[in-house]
Automatic annotation (TrEMBL):
InterPro entries: GH116_catalytic, GH116_N, Non-lysos_glucosylceramidase. This is Glycosyl-hydrolase family 116 catalytic region domain-containing protein. Pfam families: DUF608, Glyco_hydr_116N. Transmembrane segments: none annotated. Residues 174-216 form the Glycosyl-hydrolase family 116 catalytic region domain. The lineage of its organism: Eukaryota, Metazoa, Ecdysozoa, Nematoda, Chromadorea. It comes from Strongylus vulgaris. One of its GO terms (molecular function) is beta-glucosidase activity.
Length: 219
């Protein structure tokens, strides 16, 4: 926050309740309460809030930026027999670090996205539906139940089919996978991956190489 602004944080409120304490505090002081009295320990739902307060002189404008991140470094499946560590933990630790990185690099990311998309968007020879589809479908890389893990030496004990070549790639670039769909919970279904493989090879070639290496012994 800037020196002439004030940030207040509510560390817990029950989103299924009225939120009266939050709104009353905002109305009276312009700040959030530290905790909502309606929030009962052990509630199945929990909300948090962040508020930045500052003065805006007449005929001017100001902007406040916020970042939201989920930090879930470890993953369990099914019978919960094995832990998997997410790849991003190699680079950042905790939600606050994720938010700080996003706020600090937002302009850089937006510039890179514009430079990447503009040649397609400004190409008059390409139809509008194609321009929309070629970028919008990439959401599935993060929203398609995607998984990116750090390599674990214990994998080789249970997955004896992993070659030394594949394991070395995973140690360098992690192990990546995504669901065929939310209805079919199978990861990296090869016939479906065929359609995405070209885009992944162009954008993330080492990830694509690692995915292919898992199947190479079967060819």
């Amino acid at each position: 926050a800037e020196s002439n602004s004030h940030v207040s944080v509510c560390q817990g409120f029950d989103p299924s309740k009225s939120g009266a304490a939050l709104w009353s505090s905002l109305w009276d002081t312009g700040d959030l309460p530290q905790k909502d009295d309606e929030c009962i320990p052990g509630s199945t739902e929990l909300g948090v809030g962040v508020c930045q307060r500052f003065a805006v002189p007449a005929n001017t404008s100001r902007t406040a930026e916020f970042a939201l991140a989920w930090d879930m470094p470890n993953v369990l499946f099914g019978a919960s027999r094995r832990w998997y560590k997410r790849r991003y933990t190699r680079f950042v630790r905790g939600a606050s670090c994720l938010c700080a990185r996003a706020l600090g690099r937002r302009a850089q990311w937006e510039k890179a996205l514009d430079e990447w998309q503009m040649p397609i968007l400004h190409n008059p020879q390409l139809p509008e539906w194609y321009k929309s589809a070629i970028f919008n479908e990439l959401y599935f890389m993060t929203d398609g139940g995607s998984l990116w893990f750090e390599y674990d030496d214990d994998w080789a004990k249970n997955e004896t089919q992993l070659s030394d070549y594949t394991k070395n790639l995973m140690k360098q670039y992690g192990r990546f996978g995504y669901l065929e769909s939310w209805e079919y919970r199978m990861v990296n279904t090869y016939d479906v991956h065929f359609y995405a493989s070209f885009a992944i090879a162009q954008l993330w070639p080492h990830i694509e190489l690692t995915v292919q290496s898992e199947f190479s012994k079967y060819f």
